[in-house]
Amino acid sequence: MRVPTTGPTGPSTSPPGGRPPDAPPADRRPPAVRSLGPTLNWRDPRVAALIIVFCVGALHAFSYTVAFPPWHIEDEPQHVDYVSKLVNELRLPSIGDHLDRPILDSAYDDRDWAAYGLSAPARPTDDSTDLPSYSYEAYHPPVPYLLGVPVLMVTRHQALLSLYGLRMLTVLAAACVCTLAAHLAARRFHGGRAVRAALGAGLAVALLPAIADSGGRFNTDIFAALAVLIAVLTLLRWVERPGSTRAWQVGAALALAALTRETTVVVVAPLVVAGVVVARRRQLRLGELARMLAPPALAVGAWELHLQTSIGRFNGAGAFVDRFGRQFPALGFGDVISGLLSRGYLPYGHWGLPAVITVLVFVMLVAGLVLADRVGRRVEALTAAAMLVLQLLVMVGSSSTGLNTASARLLLPSYPVVIAMATAGWASIRPRVAAYLPALATLVMASWFMVAELWPTYR
C-alpha cells in the first residue's frame, strides 16, 4: 500500500517507510566507506596502490639489510654510536669522542673484512687514534638519531642487535619515502590515472638501488629524503590554499628538514618556487612568510650554536676536516660528471653502471617533467627540476672540496620528488603503460646491480 505525500512539485507516493518509489532497495545501496583523509578512503584503489608500494619498498630495502654484512660501510658504527650516546649517556656526542666499547668490538669482530678484500686489522684499543675509532658523525643534526632512541632503549649495550634494530628503522623510512612519492605523483589525478601514477612512481622509487641501499643500512640519507618529501608536500598544499595554519605546517616541515641532514638544503628550491607562485597570484602575506621561515631559522640557529660551543666552529664538516683531514681527493668537474654517470643511481661504494643506462634514465626523467608541465602540473615540475639542479650543485661543491665522492647519496634527497613528478608526466599520456616506464627502468637497474654486483660481492 502506498501513502500519498506531497513533494516539492506536487503529490507523490512512497511506501510506509518513507523511501521514494524510484530509490534502490536497501540492500543495493552503496555501502558506507571509512574515510582515509580528505580525498582517499579504504576502498579507493589508490589505497591498495599505496599499500603495494609500501610493501615493495620495505622488501627491497630489507633484502639489502640481509645482504649487507654487519657494519657494512665505514661510518655505520659511528651512526650507531651517536644513538648510543643519546641513550646511555643522555647527551649529544662530540667529534672527539671514541666509539663505545661494545660497538668498537662488534665492528671489529663481526665485520666481514673479506667482502672488502682486506685482512682484519689490529684490534682497536680505547686509546686508538685511527679514524674508525672516533664518533666522527657527531657534527650531523640529531633528528634521525632521536628516532633511533626507542630501539636502543630496548637493545642497550648489545651492539649487533642495536645495529639490526636500527637497520629495520631505515627499512621503514625507505618504505615511507616510496609511499609519499606515490602520493605526490597521484595527488592531482583521478580514477585509473591516479592509480597508475601512484603505482608507477612508488615502484620506480622503491626499486631504485640507491634508495634500497640507504634503507638497508643505518644512515641519515634516507631520512633526508623523507624530510624533503614532507617539506615539498606541505609547500604544495600551502600553494594550493595559502593560510596561517598551512604556513605553520610548512615552517615545522622545514625545521624538521634542517635538523635532519645538511643535504636537505635542497628544500630552498621548492620554497622559492612556492613563494614566487603565490606572490604572482598576489596572495603572499608577510605574516605567513614569517610563520614559514621562523621555525627553520630557529632550528638552524640552535644547531649552529651547539656546534660552535661543542667543536668551536659553525661548520661541522669544516671541523671534521680540521681534525681528521680530507678523506677523498678533490675532484674536478669532469671527474664529478664521470662519477655521476657510473654511480648516479647506485648504492654508496665502489660500484659502476654503464654510462648509457644512466643517460637514458636521466633523459626519461627530464621528458617526464616536461610532460608534467604540459598537463598543468607546472609548479610540481618546476619544483622537481629546481631541486635536481640545486642538488647537483651541492654534489659538485662537496666533491670538489674533497668532503665526499660523487655518488647517488648526495642526490638522494631530490630523487623521490623528481621521479614522482616525471612519472606523473608519463602517466598523463597514452598508452597507459607509459606510467610504468620509470619503474621498468629502475627494475632493470635493480636486477642488474643485484646479479652483477651485490650477490657476487657478498655471497
Structure description:
It is a single chain. With 459 residues, the chain is mainly alpha-helical. The chain has one domain (43-118, 125-458). Helices cover 61% and strands 3% of the residues. The protein has helices spanning 45-67, 76-88, 101-109, 143-147, 149-155, 159-186, 191-207, 209-216, 221-240, 244-258, 268-280, 286-311, 316-324, 333-343, 355-374, 378-400, 415-427, 437-458, and strands spanning 3-7, 10-14, 35-36, 40-41. The strands form two sheets. The chain has a two-stranded antiparallel sheet with strand order 1-2. Strands 3-4 form a two-stranded antiparallel sheet. A hairpin with a 3-residue loop joins strand 3 and strand 4. Helix 11 (268-280) packs antiparallel against helix 16. The longest helix has 28 residues, at 159-186. It is globular and about 60 Å long. The N and C termini lie far apart (79 Å).
Number of helices: 18
Strand order of the largest sheet: 1-2
Main sheet: strands, sense, barrel: 2 strands, antiparallel
Share in helix: 55-70%
Multimeric state: single chain
Mass-distribution shape: globular
Distance between the termini: 79 Å
Rg computed from alpha carbons, rounded to a whole number of angstroms? 25 Å
Which structural class matches the secondary elements? mainly alpha
Order of helices and strands: EEEEHHHHHHHHHHHHHHHHHH
* Low-confidence runs: 5-19, 26-38
Could you give a quick summary of the protein structure above?
With 459 residues, this protein is mainly alpha-helical.
